[in-house]
Predict the structure.
Amino acid sequence: MEHERKTEDPAAGLESTERVSSASPSAPHLLIVAADGTWTSRPLPAGGVLTIGRGEVDVRVDERAVSRLHARLEIAGSGELRLIDLGSANGTVVGGRLVRSAGVTLHPGEPILVGRTVLSVHAPAGERAAEPAPRPLGTGPVAASVGDLVARAAPTLISVLLLGETGVGKDVVAERIHRLSTRAAGPLVRVNCAGLSAALLESDLFGHEKGAFTGATSAKPGLLEAAAGGTVFLDEIGEMPLEVQAKLLLVIEQRVVRRVGATRGTPIDVRFLSATHRDLEAEIRRDRFRTDFYYRINGLAIHIPPLRERRDEIDGLAALFADEAAAGLRRPRPPAFEPDARARLHHHDWPGNVRELRRVIERAVLFADGGAVTSRVLFAAGLPDHPLPAPTGAPDDDRRARLVAALAACGGNQSRAARLLGISRNTLIAWMRRFDLARPRAREVAR
Ligand SMILES: Nc1ncnc2c1ncn2[C@@H]1O[C@H](COP(=O)(O)OP(=O)(O)O)[C@@H](O)[C@H]1O
Ligand SMILES: [Mg+2]
């Protein structure tokens, strides 16, 4: 297991030569390199050419998937940036598209994918451009399974698409990405794309001039302008009408927004996050979503799994919501959870995901009335009452389900699960064998 340990150290592969770090002190562009949950930033020279790759180059990215001489970044004296792929084996991706040897114009903040490393160049931004110190990322309550991706994407300006069922925490993750980004001091503007007509959505997003349409009695900037220096979160993007997609695509490509009724555009400086519970590729096949727009918003997709697929997070989230609810009710402390209540929380399928869990816990804290949360309290709080299987004489299906729920409730601890079920540890182990439930530790020892 010792192989390639070094590439897992985020700082290891990212040294650059003197040429890069001895850049002109007058407001240089910043190059941000993000890998494995941390990021580094360094000023770029005011003009010139930088090579990127695994070999003897200016910006080293030490990953197997990266070619020795992978890509080249050109910085024109005018400030224009170009990125060129140097015939790399695995390609370079900018804004979701493969870069060829002809190169592409690079916009400040646009993510460059080289292997698993994300690089981005940021325009000088006065004080804030002064070398931000690398800081720890990805702590706090987002779904543990996506925490690493969130931390990796946040500091770049990559457009992130958040996917997952309703209630899994897409809003929570969007906010987390914004707060961990270099734009945390700027606004986070959420646009709900559902339930708005194309016309309303357009005037919300792009703003309008005075007299642009009946009722436009004064000029109004749109949300894209309002989010300058910050992040725009396009929620329920799967509901966005096709015509708005086409207009927004142009805005994202040109980085210029034109108010409805205006003759001239205004440059915008925003980072885009979006979210949907829909399968956008299926929407594309049904001609309800534009392919080119999809590639623009999907610099990186983060799938947030449903709560039933990460049951190990139930206890932590329940405790968090119980704390909050108790504080809201001015109770001195959150209630304890009886083992049967805990087993029930683990047994439920949570079709409404974390949102449903939060509601159930809030009501449970209320109904517990200062006492402990029992399964009866949870039932009163709206948790469906499909009973946990009876202890003995029940059909095997039920017994197996009960066993699984008990093990989950006890974090896999067999002695505690046995106690919870009211059976001996030996009986529990016999059940586990009978139902072919893995006993990883026991098996390892046996071999
Ligand atoms: N990881 C989490 N930590 C704390 N609360 C969460 C978490 N994930 C979701 N929630 C809560 O669950 C509810 C639904 O989350 P939300 O982000 O609105 O889901 P979605 O946008 O996917 O429908 C909100 O009340 C939110 O605060
Ligand atoms: Mg949401």
Observations:
- The chain is about 35% helix and 20% strand.
- The pocket of adenosine-5'-diphosphate (ligand 1) is lined by residues 141-143, 164, 166-172, 317, 320, 354-355, 358 (CB under 6 Å).
- The first strand starts at residue 30 and ends at 35.
- The CA atoms of residues 84 and 103 lie 4 Å apart.
